[in-house]
Amino acid sequence: MKDLFDKIYKDKGPLGKWASVAEGYFVFPKLEGPIANRMRFNGREVITWSVNDYLGLANHPEVRKVDAEAGAEYGSAYPMGARMMSGHTDLHEQLQDELAEFVEKEAAYLLNFGYQGMVSTVDALVSKDDVIVYDVDAHACIIDGVRLHHGKRFTYKHNDIESIEKNLQRATKIAEQTGGGILVISEGVFGMRGEQGRLKEIVALKEKYNFRLFVDDAHGFGTLGKTGAGAGQEQGVQDQIDVYFATFAKSLASTGAFIAADKEIIDYLKYNLRSQMFAKSLQMQLVKGALKRLDMLRTMPELKEKLWENVNALQNGLKDRGFDIGTTQSCVTPVYLKGSIPEAMALVKDLRENFGIFCSIVVYPVIPKGMILLRLIPTASHTLEDVEETLDAFSAIRDRLEGGVYKRLSAKVAEAMS
């Protein structure tokens, strides 16, 4: 019999194998200072393009004031216990009601964490007789929720309506045999590519197929739609989304999440979401903070306007300079380059150390081998000067990449990992 840990000693995984040269710099980096457009990294100031603080609320003085006052009033423990037992309050209900109204649904329910909540919601919505059909590029939290499903599940090609329909046909045959139903899962905005899910085309398929639609709108909430209600509002189909999910970790710059749907569906979920039934209630400091942030989202449209001024300046500037930013339809701004993982490390180190630009690096296995994805997240706190400085830096590093500079610099890294 093998030691359970043998596989861990021998194989650290596709990302873990780079830990000796990557940890503390390329992964698990430490940004310091107040959350803002410019922070400190490795002892120097950098323009930060990797913080999902879309509306610039994380360090807003009004937000910090409410957070501090709530902390002083309630501490970090109240309320104690799970919602069903002893952790339920009027303010939890108030936040749920306001969130439901904001995203145009009958009811909402708070979740402690987005990842945990998504996994548990998928699990609660389906039984072994049901079939799940979901996008192959779905976020890890969706994939992990689907893994709990004891019935059939099918992936469709990313944002491919023909593929969705083929899988709906397969799902329909199975559901007719088992007596179950069909759950389709898409994202409102796909966080790596920045593409919106094709929600309008998906809901149109309801005329031919009997299914329910669950949308993870983590990146769309607060950034898309006339009022900021997300990708469904942007595409004019918010009322056709059966279960809507969003997190506080992006536009609301906090911790927590929520689901919204018809009241009867929410009533069912709140009695069957294991991650909430058996977990401590969302602490009051976060609840009061979320109420303040939501109020600012409703009453300060200039926050979203400034966000999109920066998004358009950055994305148009990159395209004007010949960069490939894919087909993003959101604030998420991917820049695709060609190169190896060691080259990507050398490139990013150059960006951070010599140009003062901090953005996220994405490599295989998240994207295909031979590709480098630099993901930039514009926020309302950025300035047009930040954008211009970044565009100049990207032009310079592209020239160095194409000129083989990073291949030479990365040779030692590649040798160390061979």
Question: What does this molecule look like?
Answer:
The protein has 418 residues and is of the alpha/beta class. It contains 17 helices and 14 strands. A 7-stranded mixed beta sheet has the order 4-10-9-8-7-5-6, with helices on both faces. It has a 4-stranded mixed beta sheet with strand order 1-2-3-12. A 3-stranded antiparallel beta sheet has the order 11-14-13, covered by helices on one side. Helix 3 (61-74) runs antiparallel to helix 12 and helix 14 packs across helix 15. It is globular.
List keywords for this structure.
418 residues; 14 strands
Radius of gyration: 22 Å
What is the distance, rounded to the nearest whole angstrom, between the alpha carbons of the first and last residues? Answer: 30 Å
Q: Count of helical segments?
A: 17
Percent range for β-strand residues: 15-25%
Quick one: how many beta strands?
14
Q: What share of residues is helical?
A: 40-55%
The biggest beta sheet is recorded as:
7 strands, mixed
What's the pLDDT, averaged over the residues?
94
- Which strand order do you get reading across the main beta sheet? 4-10-9-8-7-5-6
Shape: globular
Uncertain residue segments? none
Label the structural class. Answer: alpha/beta
